[in-house]
Amino acid sequence: MSTEVSVTICGCRGSYPVSGEDFVTYGGATSCVVVRAGDREIIFDAGSGIINYGRQLLRGALSRGEAVTTSIFFSHSHFDHMVGLPYFAPIFHPASTIYLFGPRTSRFDSFEATVENLIRPPFYPVALHEMQAEKIFADMGAADTVYFLTDQDEPIKVKAAHAKDAHLIPDAADIEVKVSCMRGYNHPKSGISIYRIDAGDKSVVYATDTEGYVHGDQRLAEFSRDADLLIHDAMYTEAHYTSMPVPTQGYGHSTVKIAANLASLAKVGKLCLFHHDPASTDESLHQVGEDAREYFADTVVARDGLVIDL
């Protein structure tokens, strides 16, 4: 099955949003990526980039007399990846249905409990349960695969170990999109969820907030094998990564070279550098792109509003 797939970068900064004349070209919103496969759309992370996207999404649905039904997959619950969720316009509309998938941590009993503890007074004036949309949470781990089926809004989550039970796995002809999860443990303190999106003959890997290993991250390379697009953390330059007296090794983020080497190792089609340091200006990010293409020719630097058609 061939499906038209596009990826829109709604936010690509790390740590916190930035603004000003030095951040015009690449933008200042934090992590949010939208993958569209045919008429299906799936959101990855709810950084500040989701705010404007949510307004557009709700406005478009209302103009067509429709309700918003969407899914959001969270890589982890650090502030920069969650800060836009309480400002996501569809979450306040009673006709909206939002499926939220994210990792469970040792601190809370579920991903839903994590979000509930973040979005509540005194940190935010409206508690999660007061937001009128239908919100359907699910813990998402490495054993889980989520399927989006033709003519069905509700996604289906299945554990990969159940693949032997044929009745639990949808027929291939009915699957529009499949989202798989890999857990990484090189981002403090609770690790990271990396997602692979397969839609027809196209594939995208979303690998933010990940750091490399000696000889490359072999698990991530295999997970990303032959993907059409790899969106990979490249927060630091080599100089920043190793600079004394405060090197950023071990912070859970990659360099341009780490990202490019992983793209080569995995034999992906295109690399998109993501999760920019909030201190990186337009000028420095332009140079990042030039440097990265020396390692991996088909490289783009993420910027707010960038659309990549696959």
What is the structural class? alpha/beta
* CATH topology descriptor: Metallo-beta-lactamase, Chain A
Amino- and carboxy-terminal Cα gap: 14 Å
Poorly predicted runs of 5 or more residues: none
* SS field, number of helical segments: 7
Q: Approximately how much helix is present in the residues? A: 10-25%
Shape summary:
globular
Largest sheet: 8 strands, mixed
CATH architecture: 4-Layer Sandwich
| Quaternary assembly | single chain
How many whole angstroms does the radius of gyration measure?
Answer: 19 Å
CATH superfamily descriptor: Ribonuclease Z/Hydroxyacylglutathione hydrolase-like
Average of pLDDT: 93
How would you describe this protein?
This protein has a single domain, classed as Metallo-beta-lactamase, Chain A, CATH 3.60.15. It is built from 7 helices and 15 strands. The chain has helices spanning 49-63, 79-82, 111-118, 218-223, 238-242, 256-266, 282-295, and strands at residues 5-11, 32-37, 40-44, 69-73, 97-102, 134-139, 144-149, 156-159, 175-184, 192-199, 202-207, 229-233, 270-274, 299-301, 307-309. A hairpin with a 2-residue loop joins strand 10 and strand 11 (202-207). Helix 6 (256-266) runs parallel beside helix 7 (282-295). It is globular, with a radius of gyration of 19 Å.
Overview features:
single chain; 310 residues; alpha/beta; 7 helices
List the helices and strands and how they pair.
Blueprint (H helix, E strand, L loop, with lengths): L4 E7 L20 E6 L2 E5 L4 H15 L5 E5 L5 H4 L14 E6 L8 H8 L15 E6 L4 E6 L6 E4 L15 E10 L7 E8 L2 E6 L10 H6 L5 E5 L4 H5 L13 H11 L3 E5 L7 H14 L3 E3 L5 E3 L1
Parallel strand pairs: 3-4, 4-5, 5-6, 11-12, 12-13, 13-14
Antiparallel strand pairs: 1-2, 1-15, 2-3, 7-8, 7-9, 9-10, 10-11
Helix pairs in contact: 6-7
